[in-house]
Design goal:
Length: about 220
Amino acid sequence: MASLFEQYPDLLEKVKFDANGLVPAVLQDAATGRVLMLAYMNRESLQKSLETGHCWFYSRSRQELWEKGATSGNRQRIEQIEYDCDGDTLLIQVQPEGPACHTGAFSCFDDAAPESAPEYPAVLFRMIRDLQVLMRQRNRERPEGSYTTQLFNAGISKIAKKLGEEGVEVALAAVNENDSRLSEEVADLIYNLLVLLEHRGVSLNAVGEELQKRAAGRKK
């Protein structure tokens, strides 16, 4: 994989730092799009972020560089960096290795969420993203000995049948099994659903857009 310097060779020159030599950086979970935190970078912290692959910032109160996760281990691994149309704000997509907020919350914006909001499934979203990458590789390369390859080779009818079987297993587990077994069956269902979508060439974004349309319809 190319280093961040190779991916963004001109980034340090294109970013417009303010009069204090700083640029705001918004961190976003690459798997879910959820905003995690806002911090500031100067040229040196941006350079160290490119060198190490995880985020470094500049503390305006302490007037010094700081490495995100240096003491807690909750580093934010960089997957993509973008800047806005003026070049004076960074959007950094990351793979979180733990909570982003110093309070221990997953996001610095968690306090703004309704008290009734369910637990945020960060691990699930990251695993779905990783599984999507794996599915694409298996579909393209078809390595021997892979169960996923066997499903792709069997075709859509077999894949659809397997998904249906897993749906029944989830329903039965919901009625007859404990929470652990239900989680296992749901994991099987999600895996087979991702196989089916990859085989058909339908993205999860298309599914998300459909849910978004339905949610907008409910608000009317």
